[in-house]
Amino acid sequence: MPDRLPGQRQGPRLPETVRRLVDGEQVSAPLDEVRAEDLLRVLAGERIPVDGLLEAGVATVDEQVITGESIPQPKRPGETVHAGSLNLDGDLRVRATA
Question: pTM for this structure?
C-alpha cells in the first residue's frame, strides 16, 4: 500500500545529513541519528532538519509548507522552528526538540 494517495503532495524534502555541534566542533551526521537536545547548525538556503528551539542567530524563515503562511517569518533566539521550513538568510543554531 502506498504511503500517500495518488495526487497527494509530499512534504518538504529534509536533508540527509546535518551539521551537529559537539564541544564547539561541527560534525556531519546522518539526520536519523539526531536526538532531542542535539545542537545543529543550519545555513542560509537550507531546510531546517528538525523541530527545535532557535538558540542563536536571526533569520527569515519560510514556513509555508508547514503552516500555509505565505509571508516568511522573522525568527530570533528563543523562538521555535519547524522541520521542513526553509532558512532564507541566517546562520542558525537550533536545539532539537523532536
Answer: 0.86
